Amino acid sequence: MEGNRMEKTGNLKNTGNHTDQMAKDRKAREAEKLERQKAMLEEADRERFDFRDKDQSSFKTEKGLTSEIVTEISKMKNEPDWMLQHRLRSLEIYNRLPMPDWGPSLDELHMDDIVAYVKPNTNMKSDWNQVPGYIKDTFERLGIPQAEQKSLAGVGAQYDSEVVYHNIRDELSKQGVIYTDMETAVREHEDMVRKLFMKLVPPEEHKFVALHGAVWSGGSFVYVPEGVHLEFPLQSYFRLNAAGAGQFEHTLIVVDKGASAHFIEGCSAPGYNMLNLHAGCVELYVREGATLRYSTIENWSKNMMNLNTKRAVVEKNGTIEWISGTFGSHVTMLYPSSILKGEEARSTFTGISFSGKGQNLDTGTKVVHAAPNTYSTIHSRSISKDGGIAVYRSTVDILPQAVGSKSSAVCESLMMDSASRSDTIPSLNIRTDASDVGHEAKVGRISDESVFYLMTRGLTEQEARAMIVRGFVEPISRELPLEYAVEMNRLINIELDGTIG
Length: 501
Fold this sequence. Notes:
By secondary structure, the chain is an alpha/beta fold. Helix content is about 30%, strand content about 35%. It has helices at about 1-50, 65-75, 80-95, 135-140, 145-150, 170-175, 180-190, 190-195, 205-215, 450-455, 460-475, 480-495; strands at about 60, 120, 155-160, 160-170, 180, 220-225, 235-240, 245, 250-255, 260-270, 275-280, 280-285, 290-300, 305, 310-315, 320-325, 330-335, 335-340, 345-355, 360-370, 375-385, 390-400, 405-415, 420-430, 435-445. Strands 5, 6, 8, 9, 11, 12, 14, 15, 17, 18, 20, 22 and 24 form a 13-stranded mixed β-sheet that branches. A ten-stranded mixed β-sheet has the order 4-3-7-10-13-16-19-21-23-25.
């Protein structure tokens, strides 16, 4: 009997060991399956942005920044003399202005190592079939032609320093809408461009605006006539392919009295082991009773210095809506700003940034209330992981004459781990008591309880965390057109790849 009991006990032990081994094998298979899925996701999604083309440019300036280089760029473009003088004056301002002494360190950036102008081996085309094959392939992989066919009123595509493709629907041209590249606008709409070009963002603003004024190239010009409402958005996509180069596109948009428009801006670049620089400039003029929505999804490579400047001036009863998604770059300093110049002008800013390993994303917004009964709302969300730094920086100025104005700002930050960092640096400059201003900031981590709850419903830990993050950014993604909301979720999946803990 004793022997039988021992034998049975031994069998029970063997059965338990077998069950444990089966559980371990199952977990190993699940882990292996998850790793394969993650690898497939990374390969499929990253390939869409990180592929690079062989350099087939027809011309490049020398590295660095000199008056000879600036003059050479202007001559290449056959510009009027006033633009050349503007470039040379901007260069003088650049040389005397100091580097910013606040925000992320820019010590790694040396203009002597940057190529300011790279011309692709084609002129701008209005027929997609005439664009060189390798450039067509680049933008087709990025989804631009499909987007044009499905839901866009006009498309501009910039490759390195020049716009290579531009098109607008015939019905918009018949309504008087102008949508073209900036070089064409300087020649064909010179009176309008000369009055407005870099008047809202002057070269004296800071060193990198002055740099932009000296070497700008490419970008978009939009004019929407009085009372015209664009049913579909316009889009410009900026692709920087050259290693060690800069991209300095200029966007100038005028939405006239009572008109409305939506402009979408997309940006990407492949990764290199050297710094690239982006220092574009955006100037938006929103006339009385007009509405403009400006949406941006940036997916720069992790070797990019992104030092962009964007500003809108809004007249009486006008509205500017900023939608901003920042997912790439090594360093970003980006603060779209609104000047509410007319009574009852409105500004809304909705932004999301995602900072990972080796990234310092310093983003936010600025609003100047310069007229009575103006209104602004700010809703910013940031995510940081793997030691990434996410900084929210904002300024709200309510001038003495802006009585009855209201401003509300909400900043929320989500840190995925203890190595990451999130800072909130708001500035409120209120010069009249007859105003209503509020600011709220939240910083937190994903709770273990939330992850555990989702895992009890059948999700893996990574899937649970990804679901929580997507819920966190949902208020921003729902403001985007469907295809760009999908794009944002895809970028989030890329950034979350491998995130545990």
